[in-house]
Amino acid sequence: MNLPKRNLGSSSFEITTVGLGTWAIGGGDWAFSWGPQDDAQSLKTMHHAIELGINWFDTAAVYGLGHSEEVVGKFLHELSPSERPLVFTKCGVVWDDANRMVPGKRILAPESIRRECEASLRRLGVERIDLYQFHWPDEAGTPIEGSWATMSELISEGKVRVGGVCNFNVALLERCEPIHHVASLQPPFSLIRREVTAKEIPWCAQHETGVICYSPMQSGLLTESFSAERVAKMSKDDWRRRGEEFQQPKLGKNLSLRDALRPIAQRHHTSVSEVAVAWTIEWPGVTGAIVGARSPEQIDGWIRAATLQLTSADLDEIAAALERTGAGAGPTRPSASAPQSAPDTSRRAKA
User: What does the alpha-carbon distance between residue 208 and residue 343 come to, in Å, rounded to a whole number?
Assistant: First the structure.
């Protein structure tokens, strides 16, 4: 497929508007697992993504406690260098191998970042990470200035091409930017999680920082087949059984919103999943969306979101459904005609 591409902020990366998320391929038996996953199926899924034209994968050290990166590394080994996708990974969540079901600690100490970077390089089998991201803000008291200076050093040393952050607010972005340009922000963003459209995405547009949003289908809620019964049947180690959006009364509101997307999907001869993902990449300032898959068939269920053009009437209908159902929070409609702020070049000069 000929998928549209956008520049990731001011970096040299031109990425497809959808990328493959590899959280679920980390497999089971850890605190935020999606349940068991077959590695051979994961490799087939990644090959299918490349065949369809996707040119970047997003992973993290903590997914499967290293296993997702190992599987991605095995996949990369099967390809020639010219066939390889860009690989984005993350650090900053440190786990205890002896207690796999205990959530990792969010640590961005400089020495920890360096250890994690070396471990990710080994697991992925690469000499340099394309985009290295802080997974979460530090919770151990490390000043972000020291953490981000370490990211700048890793870039200077050639171990990382560009650096980004995930789940950061504007205040943290403002503290990082003078030290080294923040290439990208990865926030949660979907029809249900819309808060970042108010401040973080406009900040990124102004500072030439790319935005690659995660969970655009809200971890499967915004798909045709999802139901309350499915939650009850999930694997015991599937984190979604504990997720707030998967519990009543929010679950009912979210499924009502999903149902309101069906007529739009039917008009476009597409799926609800594709409407949900297309809505996120319709927002000014968003570069692309990370969409997870555990099988080639799942990719087939959302790949056309990259080329789906929602009309103004579609966007109005979706905004009305958000108001009517009360699902989620945040602004309800992207405005393609809204001018984006002029880039702040003074900050780039300091980077």
Answer: 6
Q: Please, are residues 260 and 191 in contact by the beta-carbon 8 Å criterion?
A: no
- Full set of structural domains in the chain with CATH: 13-350 (3.20.20.100)
**Whether the Cβ atoms of residue 195 and residue 329 lie closer than 8 Å to each other:** yes
Q: What is the pLDDT of residues 16-26, one digit of tens each?
A: 999 999 999 99
Identify whether the C-beta of residue 270 lies closer than 8 Å to the C-beta of residue 311: no
N-term to C-term CA, the chain: 37
Residue-wise pLDDT tens digits, 131-190 = 999 999 999 999 999 999 999 999 999 999 999 999 999 999 999 999 999 999 999 999
Structure-token match 């029809």, residue found: 191
